[in-house]
């Protein structure tokens, strides 16, 4: 009986989601030419991947306004919370030429003679209100970052700095399935190039072209150009400097800035153990907000069924999750309040290092012991470790 009710409801939900999502796709691409690199070309035959992809933030990484500039409800009415304080008299919706962000916050770009620069307020999608830029975004704006020089490469497909063009907004199919031409003319018979290499390290690197910090040797920009493997080879990733705090890393090698999961991951034993990003994340999308195959502890189950009988493991039954301790929030790097990046080194971040280097640790920077200080955690651990 219960099943009979849930089933048609589920179909309805999926159907309505699909309609919203598809109408959205045409809106993003409205002002750009639809070429062979467009996801819809591939979607004609690969319906399933297409319908997942439209749910992924990848499909919306650059928002190009069409006639309706109010993406995700950004409201310019004077009764909207924060409007009078942060928007009124500073900019209007006509100033918005592009936007980033469809998950938590949205930042807006306006055209200037230097390219596209950040506008001084951001839209909180969940709380439906205007806010001032977070300290990190404020710093970026003050330093004069432009979309073209600093930010566009990873939020579109196939950016070419020489001509200042991209082949499609967002991360479309061909950002990952690169050499697609032959596949199209043979109606899918020739898959060389589109098929993703089975080597897990290669698969992770595919994600690392955007989920990493570095500099392109040829263009000196902060992102790789184009989509080809030769262009990718020009991109030199930043590396940690042991004992030093750099813009990108803490002294123990933990990532310090957001969107550098690849540089954390390659430090972990998981790389040698042949895991890849897609061991845990679905590449096309899912109903999980981080596109995880499985959540919290079950993300690690199956492989770590029997974790070591450590006191720190035993003293936290059912309270802390594996992610709390092994994927701590790297707090210094928040794009905005409440948005966290989690270390992908899977290391337990030692409170001792937090005392020594003023960096985050797994106990007091996590969601758990926020009211305690680092030395409290050091003492507790000493007791548990019998030191
Ligand atoms: C005319 C139909 C058609 C179009 C258009 C098409 N494909 Fe395919 N594709 C196929 C067929 C048929 C196969 C082989 C059967 C299968 O694996 O589903 C395939 C297989 C694939 C595979 C799996 C290859 C493997 O060996 O595992 C990938 C990846 C892929 N296509 C990506 C793309 C991308 C990216 C695009 C757009 C640039 C695209 N396809 C456009 C028909 C098409
Ligand atoms: C090297 C690639 C790369 C570059 C360059 C880059 N980004 Fe991103 N950006 C990402 C990735 C990857 C994510 C999402 C991953 C995450 O959550 O860690 C992201 C997410 C974001 C988000 C959050 C969006 C949301 O939905 O909540 C904002 C805002 C953002 N970037 C702004 C910027 C700005 C501003 C710049 C230029 C200063 C920039 N990005 C340059 C790769 C990049
Ligand atoms: C962010 C990178 C990325 C994007 C974007 C992407 N794919 Fe994939 N795709 C992959 C990876 C990686 C695999 C290999 C499967 C795995 O590792 O789970 C894959 C596998 C596939 C396959 C083989 C069958 C399967 O699902 O395993 C097809 C077909 C495919 N993708 C089509 C598409 C189409 C069509 C789009 C655009 C709508 C697309 N992909 C966008 C990374 C991507
Ligand atoms: C061409 C650049 C690019 C590539 C390649 C890429 N990403 Fe992303 N990824 C982004 C950007 C940009 C965002 C943030 C989009 C936004 O929030 O607007 C993002 C967001 C994400 C998110 C967060 C989504 C969410 O819902 O919070 C995950 C997870 C992710 N990517 C995983 C992957 C994986 C796994 C791969 C490789 C299979 C990959 N990405 C390849 C640029 C890229
Ligand atoms: C597909 C299997 C698999 C999954 C899923 C997995 N691991 Fe692992 N993990 C391994 C293997 C294999 C090793 C290396 C051998 C070992 O040390 O046990 C490893 C090693 C580790 C280590 C030791 C440190 C290191 O870098 O070598 C930690 C800590 C760890 N994993 C935590 C996690 C956490 C937390 C999760 C969930 C978010 C997780 N693992 C998910 C297979 C997995
Ligand atoms: C309360 C924090 C905490 C939780 C929760 C936690 N761990 Fe750990 N884990 C640690 C600490 C601390 C160490 C390092 C032990 C040491 O050196 O004292 C460790 C060590 C490990 C190791 C061995 C690492 C090595 O270097 O050999 C693995 C594997 C591991 N944990 C996996 C997991 C998995 C999987 C879960 C979830 C089921 C989990 N842990 C939950 C704190 C935690
Ligand atoms: C062993 C499992 C595992 C692997 C491997 C893994 N991730 Fe994650 N990832 C997670 C989990 C779990 C979270 C969610 C943390 C949370 O929100 O609680 C996450 C979160 C993310 C996010 C959202 C931002 C953040 O830090 O919370 C992005 C983006 C991401 N992963 C990208 C990647 C990329 C790219 C790779 C490969 C270089 C990768 N992940 C490898 C488990 C994994």
How would you explain this protein's 3D organization?
- By secondary structure, this protein is α+β, with helices and mostly antiparallel strands.
- The protein folds into 2 domains: 17-202, no CATH class; 238-387, no CATH class.
- It is 31% helix and 9% strand.
- The chain has 17 helices and 8 strands.
- A 4-stranded antiparallel β-sheet has the order 1-2-3-4. A two-stranded antiparallel sheet has the order 5-6.
- Helix 16 runs antiparallel to helix 17 (374-384).
- The relative contact order is 0.08.
- The model is unreliable at 1-34 (pLDDT under 50).
- It binds heme C (7 copies).
- Residues 204, 207-208, 211, 261-262, 265, 270, 275, 277, 279-281, 290, 292, 299, 323, 327, 340-342, 344 line the site of one heme C.
Distance between the termini: 60 Å
SSE order, one letter for each helix or strand: HHHHEEEEHHEEHHHEHEHHHHHHH
Q: What percent of residues adopt helix (DSSP H or I)?
A: 25-40%
Strand order of the largest sheet: 1-2-3-4
Shape: globular
List the main descriptive attributes of the protein structure presented here.
387 residues, alpha+beta, 2 domains, 4-stranded antiparallel beta sheet, 17 helices, binds heme C
């Amino acid at each position: 009986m219960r099943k009979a009710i849930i089933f048609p409801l589920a179909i309805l939900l999926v159907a309505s989601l699909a309609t919203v999502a598809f109408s959205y796709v045409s809106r993003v691409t409205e002002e750009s030419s639809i070429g062979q690199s467009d996801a819809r070309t591939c979607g004609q035959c690969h319906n399933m991947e297409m319908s997942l992809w439209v749910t992924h933030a990848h499909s919306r990484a650059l928002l190009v306004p069409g006639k309706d500039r109010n993406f995700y409800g950004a409201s310019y009415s004077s009764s909207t919370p924060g409007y009078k304080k942060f928007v009124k008299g500073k900019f209007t919706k006509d100033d918005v030429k592009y936007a980033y962000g469809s998950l938590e916050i949205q930042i807006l770009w306006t055209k200037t003679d230097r390219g596209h620069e950040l506008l001084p307020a951001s839209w909180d999608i969940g709380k439906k209100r205007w806010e001032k830029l977070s300290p990190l975004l404020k710093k970026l704006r003050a330093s004069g970052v432009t979309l073209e020089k600093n930010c566009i490469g990873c939020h579109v497909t196939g950016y070419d700095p020489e001509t200042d063009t991209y082949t499609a907004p967002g991360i479309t199919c061909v950002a990952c399935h690169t050499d697609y031409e032959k596949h199209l003319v043979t109606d899918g018979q020739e898959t060389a190039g589109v098929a993703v290499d089975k080597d897990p390290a290669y698969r992770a690197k595919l994600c690392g072209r955007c989920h990493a910090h570095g500099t392109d040797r040829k263009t000196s920009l902060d992102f790789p150009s184009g989509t080809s493997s030769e262009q990718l080879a020009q991109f030199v990733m930043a590396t940690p400097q042991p004992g030093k705090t750099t813009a990108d890393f803490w002294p123990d090698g933990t990532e310090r800035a957001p969107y550098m999961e690849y540089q954390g991951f390659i430090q972990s034993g998981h790389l040698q153990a042949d895991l890849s990003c897609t061991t845990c994340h679905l590449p096309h999308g899912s109903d999980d907000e981080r596109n995880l195959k499985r959540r919290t502890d079950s993300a690690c189950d199956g492989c770590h069924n029997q974790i070591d009988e450590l006191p720190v493991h035993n003293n936290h039954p059912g309270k802390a999750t594996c992610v709390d301790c092994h994927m701590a929030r790297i707090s210094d790097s928040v794009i905005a309040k409440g948005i966290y990046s989690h270390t992908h080194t899977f290391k337990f971040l030692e409170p001792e290092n937090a005392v020594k280097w003023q960096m985050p640790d797994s106990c007091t920077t996590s969601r758990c012991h926020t009211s305690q200080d680092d030395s409290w955690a050091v003492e507790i651990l000493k007791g548990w470790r019998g030191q």
